[in-house]
């Protein structure tokens, strides 16, 4: 089974990739496919994970999007066609959205780098590394340990402090429609 923090990262990346380009990132597709094929063939079908995610994980993903929307208006910004706006106006909006969304992350998630070295510095990827935590780029040949330059430190969720989920209907709502009555 794929770790919760990895699934959360995959869900977040898939959401934005589907929103922007309409496709699931290929590395996530491969990772999920290989995790699915890792299930032992002699396991009875009834004990295999279901195709549909548990309601709780779906609800929590929607809740995180709702928090980013409520405090940072992130979904509004991503859904907006920004091409007609001048760069100066767009830059000002991005600063506000960035600050608000960063506060949401700081309030509800504790994040740490996967690799704590500085970017563009040499690192060694050890034998037996978890491919979900390190993505090898470029001319990948040979067996680990492999030396290379760190291009991105990666992120890992170490703690989640989301508020309680509301009871009843509406858990799939990221933001309610707003109707002003004259």
How is this structure best summarized?
The chain has 182 residues and is α+β, with helices and mostly antiparallel strands.
Features:
41% helix; two-stranded antiparallel sheet; 5 helices; two-stranded antiparallel ribbon; 182 residues; alpha+beta
Fraction of helical residues: 40-55%
**Widest beta sheet: strand line-up:** 1-4
Provide the structure class: alpha+beta
End-to-end separation: 52 Å
Strand content: 5-15%
- Radius of gyration over C-alpha positions, nearest whole angstrom: 20 Å
Q: Give the low-pLDDT segments.
A: 38-50
Which sequence of SSEs, written as H and E, runs from N to C? HHHHHEEEE
Number of helices: 5
Number of strands: 4
Oligomer: single chain
Q: Indicate the mean pLDDT.
A: 80
Major sheet attributes: 2 strands, antiparallel
